[in-house]
Amino acid sequence: MSSTETSKLSGRYSIDKAHSRIGFSARHAMVTKVRGSFDEFEASGYFDEDNPANSSVEVSIDVASINTRNADRDAHLRTNDFLAADEHPKITFKSTSVKRDGDNYTVTGDLTLRGVTKPVTIEFEHTGAAIDPWGNQRIGFEGGTTINRKDWGVTWNAALETGGVLVSEKVNLEFEVAAVKAAE
Fold first, then answer.
1. Considering only Cβ atoms within 10 Å of each terminal Cβ, which end of the chain, N or C, has fewer?
2. CB distance 161 to 172 below 8 Å
3. CATH code for residues 3-181
4. 44 and 14 Cβ atoms separated by less than 8 Å
């Protein structure tokens, strides 16, 4: 891309929730993964293609919107055993640095979950940019990272008769992001 084309991408963006997903997976009973997502979230940021260090992102997730396609499990995940949705209704992320290597970006920031804030690093791939049929500039990213839920005070578990535990400590966070540039 020429610098004229890339500078057209630079600017303030908001997430397109209808075309984005914030999800997770965790091993269950040592044999399979449970996948889920959050249905309600907001995200915005500034994307600087020419100088990625000037880029930033902020995300706010409604904990009560957790969806694993199982109402009983979702209700349990909202309790103090896991996400404590009543006491901590939001999960937030605020970037502290952005670095680029080709089409790959490393975004480091502060993740706050259950009132605990810890740094995390998320690897993203820039999946493209396009002008949609309504004239809006869109950009896309996909990425993820793995966290240990115990680092945020999520410690509930149950021992299995055959050894091991019901829920893994490692949780994979998954992001599929479509963002729309704000009007200039």
1. C
2. no
3. 2.40.128.110
4. yes
**Both tokens assigned to 77:** 């995940």
pLDDT tens for the chain, 184 residues long, are 433 344 689 999 999 999 999 999 887 645 678 899 999 999 999 999 899 999 999 999 999 999 999 999 899 889 988 899 999 999 999 999 999 998 899 999 999 999 999 999 999 999 999 999 999 999 999 999 999 988 998 775 544 455 444 556 788 999 999 999 998 6
Domain boundaries, the chain: 3-181
Task: Write down the pTM of the prediction.
Answer: 0.89
- Output 56-59 pairs: Cβ under 8 A, ≥24 positions apart: 56/94, 56/95, 56/98, 57/93, 57/94, 57/95, 57/98, 57/107, 57/109, 58/92, 58/93, 58/94, 58/95, 59/15, 59/22, 59/92, 59/93, 59/94
What whole-number distance in Å separates Cα of residue 163 and Cα of residue 140? 42
Token pair for residue 4? 């004229």
Placement of tokens 């995940």 in the chain: 77
